[in-house]
Write a structure and sequence with these properties.
This protein is mainly beta. The chain has three domains: 158 residues, Thiol Ester Dehydrase, Chain A (Roll), CATH 3.10.129; 42 residues; 83 residues, Beta Barrel (OB fold (Dihydrolipoamide Acetyltransferase, E2P)). The chain has four helices and 14 strands. The strands form three sheets. Strands 1, 2, 3, 4, 5 and 6 form a six-stranded antiparallel beta sheet that branches. A five-stranded mixed β-barrel has the order 10-11-12-14-13. The chain has a three-stranded antiparallel beta sheet with strand order 8-7-9, with helices on one face. The longest helix is centred in the first third of the chain and has 12 residues.
Length: 313
């Protein structure tokens, strides 16, 4: 007994439609005419002179356009086969349809005044296929178009009758972390970060270390400078827990700390290794680099175990 919902049984039922006529000696609703040719050419931007004047022919690609029944879709020559085929697929859950491709062969040009007739046959029904739209069956029909009883062209048309795949909501994307402003004064610092080095500016005139990076020494005013690589050890000098306002790419609450480095300068950064409410003034921290997205790393500080009040990992 056939199961109208089992893919193999559905295909057996569908195969029975191959070779059945979908339309027999159907007449095109209108003769080939210049106004429709003109509208087509205007829509397509086709200015070929062959489609105008007393000796005009119809653009070959209009072959199917002449046979279309209009919005009502009614045709006295249409057989029940196509409706039965669609009803079978609808009943098995393949309720959606999309045109996939067509092939046309032109035998002779169509001219204004030609009255067309056509026959359509259900040529093939494919096995069940899985597509990005959903699983379903490709149905190919072939139409033979005649003008005055003479073959003018053929039109092979293929559709996919499918069960729509469940729509998956897009995965939420986390906003990108804001990028620092990099300029000629601080670019070497970020080059150091990329090499996993925390570089501190050192005035070559008076030896003063400074952070953040500046174009000149705040003590002696000299513009000359070099760098010292931080050893990576430090302590939390102060901190704040941010609850509001929320900011893209950050999940409040989170702690922002002022870290005093072993070299004596201070920098603002995040503390890792403890929850936001585990950060305390005086806890010992060490430098690490974290990747915040596919191409960006930042220096942060990880709390060491055994800090004040038991703060740590």
């Amino acid at each position: 007994m056939l199961d109208a919902h089992h893919p193999l049984d559905v295909h057996r039922l569908l195969k029975a439609f191959e070779g059945r006529p979908a339309a027999v000696s159907a007449s095109a609703p209108d003769p080939v005419n210049l106004p429709m040719i003109r509208h087509w050419c205007e829509a397509m931007g086709d200015t070929n002179p062959a489609y105008t004047g007393d000796d005009a022919i119809a653009p070959p690609a209009m072959l199917q356009a002449w046979t279309m029944p209009g919005l009502s879709g009614a045709s006295s020559a249409r057989t029940p086969a196509y409706d039965e085929l669609f009803a079978l697929l609808d009943g098995a859950g393949y309720t959606a349809v999309v045109a996939t491709d067509c092939e046309q062969e032109y035998v002779r040009p169509l001219r204004p005044g030609d009255r067309l007739t056509f026959d359509t046959v259900i040529e093939t029904v494919s096995p069940r296929k899985t597509t990005r739209l959903g699983a379903g069956y490709f149905i190919t029909t072939t139409m033979r178009v005649r003008a005055g009883g003479e073959l003018a062209g053929t039109h092979r048309f293929r559709i996919l009758k499918y069960a729509p795949a469940p729509v998956q909501p897009p995965a939420p994307t986390r906003p990108a972390r804001p990028r620092p402003v990099i300029n000629r004064d601080n670019a070497p610092f970020w080059e150091g970060v990329a090499a996993h080095k925390l570089l501190i500016q050192r005035c070559t005139a008076c030896g003063t270390l400074r952070f953040p990076w500046l174009p000149g020494c705040g003590r002696c005013g000299s513009p000359a400078w070099g760098t010292v690589e931080a050893c990576g050890s430090g302590t939390v000098h102060s901190y704040v827990v941010v609850h509001h306002p929320p900011f893209p790419a950050f999940d409040p609450p989170y702690a922002v700390a002022l870290v005093e480095l072993a070299e004596g300068v201070r920098m603002i950064s995040n503390i890792t290794g403890v929850p936001y409410d585990g950060v305390r003034i005086g806890i010992s921290v060490e430098l690490e680099f974290i990747r915040v997205d596919g191409e960006w790393e930042l220096p942060v500080f990880r709390a060491r175990s055994g800090g004040p009040e038991g703060a740590g990992e």
